[in-house]
Design goal:
With about 180 residues, the chain is of the alpha/beta class. It has two domains: about 5-90, Methylated DNA-protein cysteine methyltransferase domain (Double Stranded RNA Binding Domain), CATH 3.30.160; about 95-170, Orthogonal Bundle (Arc Repressor Mutant, subunit A). The protein is built from five helices and eight strands; from the N terminus they run E-E-E-E-E-H-E-H-E-H-H-E-H. The protein has helices at about 65-80, 95-105, 115-120, 125-135, 160-170, and strands at about 5, 10, 30-35, 35-45, 50-55, 90, 115, 150. A hairpin with a 2-residue loop joins strand 1 and strand 2 (about 10). Helix 3 packs across helix 4 (about 125-135). The chain starts with a strand and ends in an 8-residue tail after the last helix. Keywords: DNA damage, DNA repair, Methyltransferase, Transferase.
Length: about 180
């Protein structure tokens, strides 16, 4: 499989358009309770395709090896035993989103970048474009968009809610002033 290293996360370089649309992929999904809500992970045979907070649902057992590995790493992160994720991920995305998410995956635990600084490292793209890529991240936490802040630094938006973003940053030792 053609994979590119993103920190310790592997991001599948094949876009949704490059996949063979006539092939049906078998997906598996499970949920685990975290201190800030129910977290779900969806995998196909070789990669995580989605991860994030679920509005409802119960813990569901993982009957897939990759799914068990992913949920275990999520539990370890919240227990303070893990600072980064070591998983293959393959979200449906554009080449630009992949480029942004690779850069975000390289932001270490306990550190942050602003949308503007991240945009400059990506060749001077607009900070708003970086924010839009963050907002479309289907593998939240694994590609840690919560580590990207607005100028100031201020909290900025987050698909998992601003309360979740603030909690994750505090968990990593990053203090963000109240707005």
């Amino acid at each position: 499989m053609d994979m590119a290293t993103m920190g310790r996360i592997s991001l599948d370089q094949r876009s949704a358009d490059a996949r063979q649309p006539w092939k049906v992929e078998t997906l598996a999904e499970a949920r685990v309770q975290t201190p800030i809500g129910m977290f779900h992970v969806t995998v196909r045979a070789d990669a995580v395709t989605a991860a994030g907070w679920s509005p409802s649902g119960d813990d569901t057992p993982a009957d897939d090896i990759l799914l068990r590995l992913a949920l275990g790493q999520v539990e370890d992160y919240f227990a303070g035993r893990r600072r980064d994720f070591d998983l293959p991920i393959a979200p449906h995305c554009t080449p630009f989103q992949r480029k942004v998410w690779r850069r975000i995956a390289a932001i270490p635990f306990g550190q942050f970048e602003t949308y503007g600084a991240l945009a400059r490292t990506l060749g001077g793209v607009a900070a708003q474009a970086v924010g839009q890529a963050c907002g479309r991240n289907p593998v939240g936490l694994l590609v840690p968009c919560h580590r990207v802040l607005a100028a100031g630094p201020r909290l900025g938006g987050y698909g998992g809610s601003e309360d979740v973003k603030r909690w994750l940053l505090a968990h990593e030792g990053i203090a963000v002033p109240e707005t």
